[in-house]
C-alpha cells in the first residue's frame, strides 16, 4: 500500500499511539482488500457504544475504562491506548438501549448505567450522539460523490444509491480507525466501475405502498445477493421512505450495498448509463408471482394468529411515517394483550413531542421509543411469542435472533392487529 508522508508519519507513531494503532489497522485492512492506497474521509458513521456487561468486565480487567474498550473493539488492539478527540465528523449509530424507556424494555440498571457512561465518553471525544440507523434523517446527509466510512447496511445502501455518496459497509474497527485518522482504504464502492449495474430487474407491477417496496427489495436481495441491481419499470417517483424500506429489505436478504433506479437514484439517468460497459449477468422479472413469493418468505416463521407485540419503525420512522401511524391510531385503543413499540430517531421524537404525535400514540396505549430496536437491542416485551411488523428487515432477523414468530404486512395490517390482537391476512 502506498502511503502519503502524513500517513506514514501517523503509522510511525509521530502523532501518538492511538493514531499509530489506527493506521496499522487500516494498512492491514487495506492490504487484505487489495487496496493500493488510502483516501480522505470526513464523514464517519460508527458504533462506539459499550452497553453490555461483558464490555464492563473487559474494561475492569484491563484497567483502562472506555479507552480499553475502544482500543480492543474499535482499534483491534490488545494494548490500551489513550484515545484523543477524533479528527473527523462522526456520528453514533443505533444502540442497544433507549435510556428513557430502559425499564419498559426489560434492561437491567447495570446495562442502563453502562450505556449512559458510554454516551458520555463518546461525546467527550467528539462523536455526535445521533443514535439511529438513519443518520441521514437527522442531519448527516452526505452529498453526491462524498467519500464516507459508514456502518449499518440499510444506511449504507441508502447513501450509496439515493444520495450518490460513496461508502462500503464498514465495521467497528475500520470506522474507529477512520475517525482518528480521517483515512479509509480506497476500494469497492469508492471506485466508479464498481458502482456500475450488474443485473437488470424488470418490474411489471405497480409499486404503490410501503409494503410493495419492502417486498420488491426483499425479492431482489434474495435473487441477486450482493451485486448491483438496476431496477427498471418503476412508474412515478417513490418517496424517501419507500426507498429507505426498499434498501433495508434488499440489504437484509442479500447484502446489497448499491442499486440504481434510473432517473430516480443519484448515479444514472438511464438504464444504459447505469450499466456503462457492463452487460447484465441476469435479467429478472418481478410480477405478481414474485411478489407473493417474497411475501411467503417473509412470513415463513408465522403460524399463530394471536399477536403479542407490534414493532414499527425499522429503519427508524420519519415524521411522515409517525403521522401516518397517528392517523390510524387517533381515537382508538390498543388491545390489552398486545404491546406496540414505535421507533424513531431521538431528534425526531422531540419534534413528535412538540407536534402532539407522541400524545396520540400514548393515548392509544402504544409507546414511542428511540436509540435502538428489537433486533439490535435484543429487547421484547416479556412473554412475546408472536410479532407483527411492517419492516422486512425485522421480519428477516427477529425469527433467527429472538426465536419468535413474525408476521410481515402493511402498516394498516399491523395497526389492525394492534387493535384486535389478531393477525388477519388479506
From TrEMBL:
UniProt keyword Protein transport, yes or no: no
Entries under InterPro entries matching the protein: PMDh-L-like_dom (IPR007506)
Q: Which GO terms describe its molecular function?
A: lyase activity
Q: Give the superkingdom in one word.
A: Bacteria
Entries under Pfam families matching the protein: AcnX
Q: Which residues form the Phosphomevalonate dehydratase large subunit-like domain?
A: 1-416
- What UniProt keywords apply to this chain's record, in alphabetical order? Iron, Lyase
Mind telling me what this protein is named?
Phosphomevalonate dehydratase large subunit-like domain-containing protein
Organism, scientific name: Halalkalibacter okhensis
Amino acid at each position: 500500500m502506498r502511503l502519503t508522508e502524513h500517513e506514514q508519519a501517523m503509522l510511525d507513531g509521530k502523532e501518538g499511539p492511538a493514531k499509530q494503532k489506527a493506521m496499522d489497522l487500516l494498512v492491514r485492512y487495506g492490504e487484505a482488500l487489495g487496496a493500493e492506497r488510502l483516501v480522505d474521509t470526513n464523514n464517519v458513521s460508527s458504533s462506539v457504544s459499550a452497553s453490555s456487561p461483558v464490555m464492563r468486565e473487559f474494561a475492569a480487567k484491563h484497567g483502562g475504562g472506555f479507552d480499553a474498550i475502544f482500543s480492543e473493539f474499535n482499534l483491534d488492539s490488545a494494548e490500551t491506548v489513550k484515545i484523543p478527540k477524533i479528527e473527523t465528523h462522526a456520528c453514533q449509530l443505533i444502540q442497544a438501549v433507549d435510556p428513557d424507556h430502559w425499564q419498559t424494555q426489560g434492561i437491567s440498571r447495570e446495562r442502563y448505567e453502562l450505556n449512559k457512561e458510554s454516551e458520555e465518553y463518546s461525546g467527550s471525544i467528539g462523536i455526535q450522539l445521533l443514535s439511529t440507523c438513519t443518520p441521514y434523517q437527522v442531519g448527516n446527509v452526505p452529498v453526491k460523490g462524498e467519500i464516507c466510512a459508514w456502518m449499518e447496511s440499510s444506511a449504507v445502501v441508502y447513501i450509496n444509491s439515493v444520495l450518490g455518496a460513496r461508502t462500503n459497509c464498514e465495521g467497528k474497527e475500520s470506522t474507529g480507525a477512520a475517525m482518528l485518522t480521517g483515512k479509509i482504504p480506497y476500494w469497492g464502492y469508492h471506485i466508479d466501475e464498481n458502482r456500475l449495474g450488474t443485473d437488470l430487474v424488470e418490474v411489471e407491477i405497480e409499486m404503490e405502498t410501503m409494503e410493495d417496496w419492502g417486498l420488491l427489495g426483499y425479492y431482489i436481495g434474495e435473487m441477486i445477493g450482493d451485486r448491483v441491481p438496476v431496477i427498471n419499470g418503476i412508474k412515478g417517483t417513490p418517496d424517501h421512505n419507500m426507498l429507505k424500506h426498499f434498501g433495508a429489505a434488499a440489504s437484509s436478504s442479500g447484502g446489497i450495498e448499491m442499486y440504481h433506479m434510473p432517473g430516480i437514484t443519484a448515479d444514472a439517468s438511464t438504464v444504459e448509463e447505469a450499466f456503462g460497459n457492463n452487460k447484465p449477468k441476469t435479467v429478472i422479472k418481478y410480477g405478481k408471482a414474485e411478489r407473493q413469493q417474497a411475501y411467503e418468505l417473509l412470513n415463513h416463521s408465522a403460524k399463530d394468529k394471536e399477536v403479542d407485540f407490534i414493532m414499527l419503525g425499522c429503519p427508524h420512522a420519519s415524521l411522515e411515517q409517525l403521522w401516518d401511524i397517528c392517523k390510524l391510531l387517533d381515537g382508538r385503543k390498543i388491545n390489552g394483550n398486545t404491546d406496540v413499540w414505535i421507533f424513531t430517531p431521538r431528534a425526531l421524537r422531540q419534534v413528535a413531542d412538540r407536534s402532539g404525535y407522541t400524545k396520540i400514540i400514548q393515548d392509544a396505549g402504544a409507546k414511542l421509543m428511540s436509540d435502538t430496536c428489537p433486533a439490535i437491542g435484543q429487547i421484547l416485551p416479556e412473554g412475546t411469542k408472536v410479532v407483527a411488523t411492517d419492516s422486512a428487515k425485522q421480519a428477516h432477523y427477529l425469527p433467527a435472533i429472538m426465536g419468535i414468530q413474525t408476521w410481515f404486512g402493511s402498516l394498516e395490517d399491523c395497526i389492525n392487529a394492534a387493535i384486535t390482537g389478531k393477525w388477519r391476512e388479506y
